[in-house]
Amino acid sequence: MFRKTLVALVLGCSTSFAHAQPAAISDQEISDSYIYLLGRLLITRQQQLDFQQGFKWNEIIHRKPGEVDWPNPNLDVAYSEAWVAVDENSCTIVSVPKVEGRYYTVHFLNGWGETIANINERLFPKRPFGEFAVCFRGANVAVPAEAVRIDLPVKYSRVLARVELGSDPDAAIALQHQFKFTATGKPKLPEIPKTPIFELEALPSVEAFDSADIALDSEADLSVGLEPLAEKARAIADAVKDPAERERVEKVIRTKAFADIGKASARIGHGTVQNGWARPGVVGEYGLDYLARTMVNNGGIWANIKPEVLYYRGSLDRNGDELSSDKVYTLTFPKDGLPAQYATFFWSVIAVDSHRFRVLPNPLNKFLINNQSGVEYGTDGSLTLYFADQKPADAPEANWLPTPKGQKYRLTFRFYRPTEGVANGTYFPPPLIKVN
Question: Among 44, 50, 291, 381, which residue's CB has the most CB atoms within a 10 Å radius?
């Protein structure tokens, strides 16, 4: 039912361009098209930043833990990153070391932030390590006999390799550096789309449509059914060449589209909010839900699919008030509902600011609590976490996450390889309780 309704809404935005007198573009169509296009522009923005920082096609970059700079980073893993190019005459060989007893994956995404492949022992139980030949679908390319071939639906993709730090970060980093990429042949390399580079707290306005053709021509949207939105974005791009229409579109974006984004952000698109925690309805693979895709690309780019990790965002306390670092909050899990129960590998929670979605700087450089933090449990077996500027007197050091005063913030709770209620969508973390 949701899919049919969404298709109807999308197709309802469609305008026939065969008429001599096309219908006027409505405010809602402008807002919908802007949000749709923004999902792509968030990726092209990051792609430009990556290559400005020294990325090269088919070369993997190993990051130090905590070094990545994008919204809602995962601080439990060592990241390695790459942009991969393949075509009809080339593949890329991904060498994966033997990883045992800790989470890892090599995650491929297309230019809209959609997951298109993962390499790990869950998906390749018979060959979880060794060489994998990543190729463009249908390419007639010889690959090493021992390599497992993986066909991608696109020629260009963003890759993140994640290795759980766990209790031995040095061993994780040693494994991280054993992941290697090698191109076979010389794939044709694309030009990096030149679209607006903006701050996340200052999204582009009408100028987004000036780059619509560049953004849409450089990467097809694989989601069948969203073509009318792409057509509408192109129509608006043409319409804003007229100064009067440009002024109108500018006003609609600032008054309506930004307001629509604010409403959608609260639920992560068409997600659900319970106990002050928002859970996305879709993540990593979005189908027709472009709204969720844009919200995720904005608030936590490079998200993986639900079977790999599930993210909950906490923005409100039990009373429905926004989280403020001027307050003290507790989060208590009962003995029969501890977070470890819902994750095959690990759980973690971080605090990020409400504008750029980066971890909150603090004098202790303590940015997360997870299953490796040495948290202490209550006499009844429960677990209470504390979020405050200064450690509450009754809080164990390991159970406290510093949230320096003077800002609104949100929490991100992750469950890696989710199980039980997290996997099936029935679970939400307990509410945050404001102590003072």
Answer: 291
